[in-house]
Specification:
about 220 residues; alpha+beta; Aminopeptidase; 9 strands
Length: about 220
């Protein structure tokens, strides 16, 4: 997987909650390192504050599974080279984590249904865009980039995400991005795992035309 991209956001006159005509920007998307955990945590905190004041959901109201465990999960992804940051100059403005390993609930049980685990997929999580940069299509471009990584670098046909169970607005967002819900997992098997809404999308189902946004650098 390449470790550096340049991202150029191209204005789009269609404003359906995914894009906004806000000018032209350029960003660098780089693999994050453990020393940059503060940037990821800042983006999380910013999103928590926005969710509390603007959305009818309990998502991230409390760190999951607790404060220490939440911090450990972020660091673990950084140490394993799974987390990326998008930069506007010296400011980290978005993040995404991509993983070839299926997410597990606290009991160690895989999250996705057993009969779906043989399907080649790349799992995404912690897809966060700073509220100051919302409406530009940056989230959609990151998802399309992840789909290309899945196809190109891992031979996967799907990208998957587990979404906070009560955040129905976020469910609708992923459906607008071409994801379909997986409804054949028994909630009784997932105990108190908070993100039980499972979504997936075929990697060739691009929504933003991210190649207009990303120029790969050597």
């Amino acid at each position: 997987m390449s470790s550096f991209f340049t991202l150029s956001v191209v204005p789009n006159t269609l404003d359906k909650g995914d894009y906004g005509s806000v000018g032209s920007y350029s960003y660098a998307l780089r693999l994050a390192v453990p020393a940059e955990s503060s940037h990821v945590r800042r983006l999380v905190r910013e999103t928590v504050a926005w969710l509390r004041t603007s959305k009818d959901t309990d998502q991230w109201r409390e760190p999951w599974p607790d404060a220490a465990g939440h911090h450990e999960r972020i660091l673990n992804d950084l140490f394993k080279g799974k987390t990326w940051l998008a930069w506007d100059g010296s400011s980290a403005v978005a993040t995404i984590t991509v993983d070839t390993e299926e997410p597990l609930i606290l009991t160690g049980q895989p999250l996705w249904p057993a009969h779906r685990r043989d399907e080649a997929a790349l799992y995404v999580r912690r897809v966060i865009v700073s509220r100051r940069y919302a409406g530009q299509g940056l989230g959609a471009a990151l998802l399309d980039w992840a789909a290309d990584v899945a196809r190109r670098d891992h031979g996967a046909s799907l990208i998957r995400v587990d979404v906070w169970t009560t955040n129905t607005a976020l469910h609708a967002y992923y459906e607008r991005q071409g994801f379909t819900p997986c409804t054949d997992q028994d909630a009784r098997d997932l105990a108190d795992y908070p993100s039980q809404a499972l979504f997936e999308r075929e990697v060739n189902q691009s929504g933003s035309g991210f190649t207009r946004f990303f120029i790969e650098n050597a």
